[in-house]
Write a structure and sequence with these properties.
Length: 116
């Protein structure tokens, strides 16, 4: 397990997210009201780039393609893909799967992510 510096705290304002590649892992770092968090960069439904999605209230991220929603802190599925109408047919094949999350720490103004 190695800590990797991904950015400075002042590079991401509260309510923003940004994609990074760290140790061959594509991740998204989120700056929420209560700190920094990181998840895998791709939605677990059809691998859309979450950094192009939206941060919603209650610490959720919404996928830009099919509107799956995940808890940023835990990676848990809040709502599975539901857009456009009919996508639910594909959901029978692509079952719900949580996002992988990464431990984040902040030290001396640097945001660090632990990659296993």
């Amino acid at each position: 397990m190695t800590l990797h510096t991904v950015c400075r705290t002042d590079e991401l304002k509260t309510g923003q997210m940004k994609a990074f590649t760290v140790a061959d892992q594509k991740i998204v770092v989120y700056h929420l009201d209560d700190g920094f968090y990181a998840t895998q960069a791709s939605c677990t439904h059809l691998f859309a780039p979450l950094a192009k999605g939206k941060i919603l209230e209650d610490c959720k991220v919404q996928c830009p393609f099919h509107h799956a929603r995940f808890d940023i802190r835990t990676g848990a599925v809040i709502d599975w893909a539901n857009f456009p109408p009919g996508i639910q047919l594909l959901n029978a094949v692509r079952g719900k799967k949580a996002l992988k999350t990464y431990k984040v720490s902040v030290k001396a103004g640097a945001v660090k992510v632990k990659i296993l």
